[in-house]
Specification:
Elements: H1 4-14, H2 17-20, H3 47-72, H4 87-95, H5 102-112, H6 116-129, H7 134-159, H8 163-166, H9 182-201, H10 211-230, H11 234-259, H12 263-300, H13 305-338, H14 366-371
């Protein structure tokens, strides 16, 4: 068992001033006084209970605001077509595997006297049954849209009054002795709480194909927010947060338009999102943000260990931006070639022409099963249009 002495040693090692702070700066120098208030690590403890509150607010919002809006737009609560009841296949699905291999499919085919394609269709339909309905997707997107719109509006109203929005060198003058304002504290705690709620709700929300990528994104965002607050890089942190929130508003609005079957509006919003995302993440972010954190801060403050970690996290974020921009360009190219945005590569509903057929027959249909053409139809993707990041 770890003793109190060992725990104190671990904490002392973790909060080593030579890692977190510039040369010749100590934690004692950044203690709150009557004249100035500085960021304290314990300030962020508030984010944990607040994240739970945000999650509860989300449930209430989706139930009493988003759901009635969805109903008003005639978005149905029914999900994908249900698989025919079959005890043997259900037992395999729940107890053994949701993705049977060829050998198991052939065994089930002989046992049930069904052809392999029919059994494959049953497993696709059964997997899709566990996916949420379009109404649930709409409610989730409306919640995110509302939060992003609020926090982005708050960020813009706050930052337009600050000198570092117009001159990024102001982020480093007199660093780290820059006092913490109420606006910055509120902005940070609210953003951190929201990302914490997203991190944990990832396991209860709609399962994305890019689950691991988004998990990494949330962890990087939480780490960046925490790092920049603890070592008082809050000024540049506010710029990063506001820049990222801008495109999030449009992508959630595009999703809602898609679920409501407003295709023209969906395409317009997605086009606006694509332009804003690529220009801000591949243009403004490296030229404005990375330039000041890598070069201006080096010139004015100089590097130290946590400076390197902070910039590595920012560069990791840039790599994610590049990956998502590739997906967006891929979607746009597909849309241009087909005349419309046709399918989301991250669509949570597996599609096949087989799924449009009636219920599985009790006898084999070898000719129809082996000669059928598999045509993909984009159904219930986040946009009727291709792959794009689920922005946070």
């Amino acid at each position: 068992m770890t003793t109190s002495w060992e725990m104190a040693g671990i904490l002392a090692w973790f909060w080593n001033e030579r890692f977190w702070l510039p040369h010749n700066v100590t934690w004692a120098d950044l203690k709150n006084t009557d004249e100035a208030t500085f960021p304290q690590a314990e300030d962020l403890y508030l984010a944990c209970p607040l994240a739970f509150c945000i999650f509860m607010i989300r449930l209430i919002f989706e139930r009493f605001i988003a759901r009635p809006c969805a109903m008003g737009l005639k978005i149905q609560a029914n999900g994908p077509q249900k698989a025919q009841s079959n005890a043997i296949l259900e037992k395999v699905f729940t107890a053994i595997t949701k993705h049977p291999d060829e050998k198991r499919l052939e065994g089930l085919s002989k046992q049930l006297d069904w052809d392999v394609r029919t059994i494959q269709r049953w497993f696709r339909q059964r997997r899709n049954q566990e996916k949420p309905s379009t109404l649930a997707r709409f409610c989730e997107s409306m919640w995110k849209f509302t939060f992003y719109l609020y926090i982005f509006t708050y960020g813009v109203r706050f930052l337009k009054k600050t000198p570092w929005l117009w001159n990024t060198k102001e982020c480093w003058y007199n660093y780290p002795y820059q006092p913490l304002t109420v606006d910055i504290h509120y902005y940070y705690v609210l953003e951190l709480s929201f990302y914490l709620s997203l991190l944990f709700s990832q396991f209860t929300d709609i399962r994305r194909k890019d689950f691991l990528i988004m998990f990494l994104h949330h962890v990087a965002a939480i780490s960046l927010i925490t790092f920049s607050y603890v070592n008082n890089m809050a000024r540049v942190g506010t710029l990063v947060m506001c820049l990222h929130d801008a495109a999030d508003v449009l992508i959630e609005a595009a999703k809602m338009a898609n679920y409501a079957k407003c295709q023209i509006l969906c395409n317009l919003l997605f086009a606006m999102f694509a332009i804003l995302f690529i220009s801000s993440r591949l243009g403004v972010y490296p030229v404005w943000i990375l330039n000041t954190t890598l070069f201006e801060s080096w010139e004015i403050v100089g590097p130290y260990p946590s400076w390197w970690v902070f910039n590595l996290l920012l560069i990791l974020l840039q790599l994610l931006h590049s990956f998502w921009s590739y997906l967006i360009v891929k979607t746009v190219c597909r849309a241009i070639s087909k005349g419309k945005v046709s399918k989301d590569d991250r669509s949570d509903i597996e599609s096949s022409s087989d799924e449009d057929d009636g219920p599985p027959p009790s006898q084999k249909h070898h000719s129809s099963a082996t000669n059928g053409t598999n045509k993909n139809h984009g159904t219930n993707g986040y946009l009727t249009g291709g792959s794009y990041p689920d922005e946070h």
